[in-house]
Fold:
Amino acid sequence: MKLTLFPRIRITHGPTPLEFMPRLTEALGGPNLYIKRDDCTGLATGGNKTRKLEFLMADALAQQADTIITQGATQSNHARQTVAIAAKLGLHCEILLEDRTGSKVEAYRQSGNVFLDYLYGANVSERPAGTDMAAAMNEVADTLRAKGRKPYIIPGGGSNPIGALGYVVCALELIDQFNNQGLNVDSVVHATGSAGTQAGLLAGFEGTRSQIPVLGIGVRGPKDAQGTSVFYLGGKTAALREVSGSVKRESVVANCDYVGGGYGVPTPGMVEAVTMLARLEGILLDPVYSGKGMAGLIDLCRKGHFSKGQNVVFIHTGGAVALYGYTDAFKDLQPV
Ligand SMILES: *Cc1c(COP(=O)(O)O)cnc(C)c1O
Structure:
């Protein structure tokens, strides 16, 4: 594996910490629970898109782009991190936000990530739910090209083989940390959406033959669709000449039992998980991804899916800024 052959800009504050969660571990009475702090990647309050953007933005610069176009849901963490790095590199940024939840709550529509998109200087426009967002981005690109600009399109979530390389890097970073800390890891768990994170991790673990199982907790589509999209993207990432490996369908594990009412729609499990992590570990999860991912991990621990003494690492993929768009979901909080 020779990742130096890909253009990359280094923006991640890394390696991000790998920490033990003693109080959560004790509260659940199951496996030893660790957390990989990819909420601390440094860019624009952090998150997993930063690692992907190291490769995507380097590619955009190599193609002499002057404008970045990307898309996401209203409270997209990917959009926020993309706008921030575009600002740092002096590029224009066009953000297309799909109204996937239909929420009319003012905080959801204007606070959290949306506020930061504007603050970092993006040109933000909305599209109704169900819009073909890839086609919508192409339209914007055509309009810009007609004006003499050089747009570069980043797919939703930064999930293509170039973006997934960011999580090949994370897999290598994790293996290094596990070896240095003498930690024998039985499972890596994280929230999976547009699939780039899980695809990159699988390609990275596969490429180093470390055989660490990865469990993706889905936050949107049904299990088969989620597994298939991770599998295809993982295969394409691993097949890059410089990565050279393969991802087997059976190593792609997605559990989509914790999506609830749909993408971005709060669930009681998410509210419990976000509250537990805040109160037991002082860690802020997010309502759309890491909160549901952690809700899945908590439930699986309670059901005895992992045994006592096993070591499980949850990757915190960031997104806590979106909490400000979701304060309504937490209105029944009581003091401890
Ligand atoms: C985008 C995102 C994810 C999901 O990562 P994918 O690579 O899209 O599967 C998880 N957590 C947070 C906070 C995210 O913003």
Remarks:
- The longest helix spans residues 161-181.
- The radius of gyration is 19 Å.
- The chain has a mean pLDDT of 96.
- Residues 190 and 315 are 5 Å apart (CA to CA).
